[in-house]
Every structure is written in C-alpha cells, then in structure tokens.
Design goal:
Elements (H helix, E strand, L loop, with lengths): L2 H10 L3 E6 L11 E8 L2 H14 L3 E3 L6 E2 L4 E9 L7 E4 L4 E7 L4 H10 L2 E2 L11 H7 L2 E2 L2 E2 L4 E8 L4 E5 L4 E3 L2 E3 L8 E12 L2 H18 L5 E5 L9 H7 L6 E2 L2 E3 L6 E4 L5 H19 L8 E2 L1
Subcellular location: Cytoplasm
Pathway: Cell wall biogenesis; peptidoglycan biosynthesis
GO molecular function: FAD binding; UDP-N-acetylmuramate dehydrogenase activity
C-alpha cells in the first residue's frame, strides 16, 4: 500500500498494527510480519474495510484466533483481519422444546463459549472443551474432536462477502466436511465468517461441567501443554490417524532447529523455544515424506501456512 492508502485504511479502523510481528498472534509463537493487521469487532467497521479493500483490489486474509496459522519469515503484503468478540455479545433464544438458539460473534473464543454454555446449562458443545481459537475459525475449519464436529450443531452461519455485504446462510446451504466449510458462493468469491447460531439443548449444568472437565483432563494427559504449537498439525487420513502413522514411522522427538515432533503426541509439532517458521515447515516436510515412504500416505496439513 502507498502512503495515501495507509491513511485511508487508518481512518476506517479503530485499531491497526503496521508491520505486525505475527509471532505475537500465533499459538506457535513464531512468524514473519504482515503489512497491516486490523482488529475489528463492529460489523459496520468490517463492512467499510471490506468495501475499501475490494474497491482498491488490496489482498486480505482473516486469521481467527491464531491457533491454526503459521506465517513464514518474510513480510506479507496486504491486510490481515482479526475479529474480536466476547460472551457479552452472546444472545440466547430459548424454545419450548428445551432447545436454545445461541448467537455468537466469530471473534469470541471457543473457551469462553464453552464456559458460557456450562454456566447456562446448555449441552451440545462439550466435545469442544479445551480447543483453542475463535468461534469463527472453528466454523471455518469445522473443528471437532471425539467423533464430533462443530457443524453438527450449527443452525446458521453469518458472513461478510468480499464486497462488504452481510449475509446469513442456513445450515443446509453450507457444505460442512472434515476440517473444512464451504459457504454459498465459494470458492468463486471470498467470504469472511462473522458469527454463527448454534442449536443447543437444555441439560444438567453439573453434568455438562463434569463432561467438559473430563475432556480437558484427557487433552492434558495426551497433549503437550505450555509450549508453542498449533494443536493437531495434520488432518487425519480416511480410516486412520495422523498421529498413529507418525508414531509408527518412529518420528516422535524428530527435530529441525527448535521445532520438534512432540514426544507426548505425534501429531503435534512444537516450538521448543526460539523456532523460526522455516524450522516448523522443514520438519513438516520431513514428517510428510517419511510417512509417505513408510505407509504410502501423504499427510495433509491442518495448519494454514502463509
């Protein structure tokens, strides 16, 4: 962007970071820089920014909560959008049959949403307990665990078009697949998820809280904690588990620079301290090639690499 475009964008955004270090916005704790990181919570601001970007043909991306992204060590041109939301933005419409339609901002964290559901005795999202990231990112990735995915409880998805129009799509209009979601009009046009409505059930608050605690305890037992990572790095191939294939290949503990395949969970690549993105990408490629050599399966990354 030239200086005039920078001034125009700054006038549209309440909060913007120029030449932002993405290590601060990624759970990997590693990353290059982006030309502009825009933080937004208001729908009108978002619409204005998207309209401006579309008119000037400036490239943009949305990064969600930063739990499933990695920026390579270079300067990335364009605008990167980070949405903000909280439990204060949640609306709940209770119905006579015990169902509840819960409307949530895309920028709300998954942890906050699950916690809100526990406090309000609503069941249906317990399997998401302990998963990092934002609600918008979870919908975009159709995130899930323990045989379930978030798309199962989505009623509608709210999104913005690349030209700034706000739209809401019913569940039957959205294509949910394993770790992916396709909105109406995609991939021909680019969309940004701004929120969703979940159809949840009234339940026993103590039981819901107990299930969430049990799931979080399982995660802590099986997954590395207190260290930079993006969670599960590879998608599970059909009929198998990426972690099992990596472990069988003898790759636990394999390292490139300061990036390592976790000795605790083989489908976690962790930053042991001071890893650069190229360490992580290099290790990813080593794992993919060795698993392919030994099992004939080419693993697909779940992490979005820019």
């Amino acid at each position: 962007m030239n200086s005039q475009q920078r001034d125009e964008l700054a006038a549209l955004c309440p909060l913007i970071h120029w030449d932002a270090d993405m290590a601060a916005y990624s759970t990997f704790r590693a990353g290059g820089t982006v030309e502009a990181l825009v933080e937004l919570s208001d729908a009108d601001h978002l619409a204005a920014v998207l309209q401006w970007l579309h008119a000037r043909r400036i490239p943009w991306q949305v990064i969600g909560g930063g739990s499933n992204v990695l920026f390579t060590s270079r300067r990335h041109e364009g605008v990167y959008i980070r949405l903000h939301g909280s439990v204060r933005d949640i609306d709940c419409d209770r119905e006579n049959n015990g169902e509840c339609r819960v409307r949530v901002h895309a920028g709300c964290s998954l942890g906050a949403l699950v916690g809100w559901c526990m406090k309000n005795s609503l069941r249906g999202l317990e399997f998401m307990a302990g998963i990092p990231g934002s609600v918008g990112g979870a919908i975009r990735m159709n995130a899930g665990a323990f045989g379930h995915a978030i798309g199962e409880v989505v009623d509608t998805v709210r999104y913005a078009t690349e030209w700034g129009e706000m739209v809401e799509a019913r569940r039957e209009e959205v294509q949910f697949a394993y770790r992916s979601t396709c909105l109406p009009g995609e991939p021909q046009a680019k969309m940004l998820i701004t929120g969703g409505v979940f159809r949840l059930q009234t339940g026993d608050g103590a039981q819901i809280a107990r299930q969430c605690r049990e799931i979080i305890a399982q995660r802590k037992q099986k997954q590395p904690a207190g260290i930079g990572s993006a969670g599960s790095f590879f998608k599970n191939p059909t009929g198998d588990f990426a972690g099992r294939l990596i472990e069988v290949a003898g790759l636990k503990g394999l390292a490139v620079g300061k990036a390592m395949v976790s000795p605790k969970h083989a489908n976690f690549i962790v930053n042991t301290g001071g890893a650069v993105p190229e360490d992580i990408v290099g290790l990813m490629e080593k794992v993919r090639q060795e698993v392919l050599r030994q099992s004939g399966v080419l693993l697909e990354p779940e992490v979005h690499i820019f």
